[in-house]
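## retry 2 of 3
previous attempt timed out at serialization; input unchanged, resubmitting
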Amino acid sequence: MTISYWVIRIIFLVVLVLPSTGLSEDIDSDTVLKKIVKKIDELYRSKSSYSEMEMTISTPHWERTLTMNVWTEGMEKTFIRILSPAKEKGIATLRIGNEMWNYLPKTNKVIKIPPSMMVGSWMGSDFTNDDLVKEYSLVEDYIFKLTTVEDADEKLLYVKLVPKEGLAIVWGHIIIAVRKSDYMPVWEQYFDERGNLIRLINFKDVKLFDDREIPTIMELIPQHKEGHKTIIRY
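## retry succeeded, writing output
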């Protein structure tokens, strides 16, 4: 036999015995699951970030668009300032830790938002106050595991998140679909405590920003308000 035959054979055997770490990940491991959820938690955040957003609110009777600036620092601080339309220009929202305030320029007043209002609508949209400022962390405040769904896509993973006991979280559970290739979220489904689907968030148009890929479109569709939806564009 030639030398090249033995070289190829040795290489083949070495590849067979090499550990799989780095070639593929054990998706069932707690470490990988936490990595997936952490990526979703920090999708639009970093140590510090600035973004410009456009929010379009649609109903069967009217449609309006807000533009705004958003600053974040880690998971604890968020500041949002509305730029247009003129009627809402200057309105601002600040969140530090678990506390949140709104500034109303027309009356020059600062209003503290009580915890009971965190699930209330933000500026008449289908997003809540908590959606915009992220009072709760998926990694810290939820228990998560892999799950299955009907008509599952083989290119996706599905993660079920259930709130930890003792927390005032409105959702019974959340199911998030992510791409197997890079754990980028594709959609999120939010259910009440009875298991009824309340809303769907679709993530679209992934682009590169400052060396980070993010979906530049978030589309929220409430399931019990026909003809309503809110779209955020970055």
